[in-house]
Design goal:
Blueprint lengths: L17 H4 L12 E2 L1 H6 L10 E3 L9 E4 L4 E4 L3 E5 L2 E11 L5 E2 L2 E2 L2 E9 L8 E10 H4 L6 H9 L10 E4 L8 H4 L1 H4 L3 E6 L10 E12 L1 H10 L18 E2 L16 H11 L1 H27 L23 H4 L12 E2 L18 E3 L9 E4 L4 E12 L2 E11 L5 E2 L2 E2 L2 E9 L8 E10 H4 L5 H7 L11 E3 L8 H4 L1 H4 L3 E6 L10 E12 L1 H10 L18 E2 L11
Amino acid sequence: MEGQDEPGEWAYDNTEEWEDAYPDCAGDSQSPIDINLDTAVDSKGHQPLVDRIHYEALGPNAGLKVLNNGHAIKIAGHFGSLDLPDGSYAVRQLHFHFPSEHSIDGVLAAGEMQIVHQRVGAQGTDGIAIVSVLLHDSEMLQADGEGKELGFFSDLGFGAVLPQQKQMMDLPADTVFNIGDIFSSQIAGSYYHYGGSLTRPPCTESVHWYILETPAPISRSMVNNFKVLFPSPMNNRPIQPLNDRDVWLNKIKTEKCEFGWCPTEKEESKKKKSSKNGDKDSKKSSKSDSTKKAKKKTSDKGKSGKKSDKSDDEEPKAHWNYASVQRWEDDYSKCGGKKQSPVDVNTTKIQSVQGPGSALVSRMSYGAVGPNAGFQFKNDGHSMTLDGNWGTLRLPDGDYIAKSLHFHFPSEHAVDGVLAAGEMHIVHQRSDATGTDGLAVIGILLRDSNLLGQPGPVGFFDRLGFSTKLPVDGETVILGADAILDIGAIFAPQLGGSYWHYEGSLTTPPCSETVHWYLMQTPAGINKAMVSNFKSLFPSPANNRPVQELNGRAIVDTELSVSSKEFS
């Protein structure tokens, strides 16, 4: 059964090595995946999952226990069943992962609850079906603090005490859980379906995945309580390639043979499909070979311990991309430094220097730019940038000129392990600095406007073409002469609020460690269509650098500097 531990040591800090002991982990149908909403909507069915689910109350006196096996928090129990085309699947366990394992349009949720089923009569890791409920910050969902979902998590111990590693906690004898009732709104909604694998060794590719579209709320304190037990690298496997698999919306099976029965014309259909996909398979094989070579190169580099001694000035224009971030330091030595960005902001480990100070907005002098400003919105293949003389930010060592806006989807910085839908960077440089010296970047997280309950600066994103046409790679779009943009006014709610501050680097080569980072705590809204429009131009691996290690650096809350030495 999936919940049982397999022999052999494995951990979440060496996921790339799982395949050495568990060959299935290198398969072509691995999980988790990123669900591209545009593609899924194009593959739409009309088969409600709720009609097939038969969850029922369990308890009292059910002997319910919460287990921490060192890899996840689990609770076993006969919570009901799920009817699929090849039989009845009985619920075996509930598993919890923070942040989520699956992502939607490149964005991970705060967490994921996986309802693990196994087909009646199946053994080992055969015949698995998993219904996943994504968990979002209850404040963003504007959920009632007394809601039944939050009550469920509280009863499991998320709000108080969860079992330590390799420990089991008994729930009170009067505990009664009916997951069908607790998560009724999620189960009644739409879902995404695909064929995949277990997300942990042995990674058996025997799983029918059903990811529910409607998220459930969980409080930030509950998430933090879990993460105390599972700190970095946490307990979510990285996203795996889709490899030409289909992801369907509201369809029980992805193809005719998913549940074992195939039509008599199978072989003929297979040949036709093979013929159509010949070129695709060739490209996929080529990509697989190049990936293996890249892995070998990285491995050899690690064995030799050699690093490029070239400075950024000696190699200023080496080619780079987001598919090879682990090799950036070969050409840009600073990318292997100890003060790299972006980082994950762990809100439970914020430090203090002098205590919260005044809002950063008191040091900003942003004004309206335009008309006749000659705005040029450019796609340089790495990001979308909009240059302009936006105003100044006064820091202890001088005035920093706001020179450009950069956009990344999903976000580069994470908060408590969760990426936002996107991130806008306001890039400043000290007035007397040159090159990549003397930089300050204000980051504004962009979140789904539906989750925030407010539309956000729609007019601003519309003006840039997020709702219609964005510039393609190498293209520059000239904004109309009548365009007037005032980022201070447009993002006033964000800039006027609290922020996190730390010392870091550029998030792209040459990765110079010369950046004062100010990440605003209040996100701005952006709609899904705009995010999808951007991602069509920057598909996987998108344009966000993975989170880097803090290496002992301090992150402070609404303080201008992390120490007296920062601006000396």
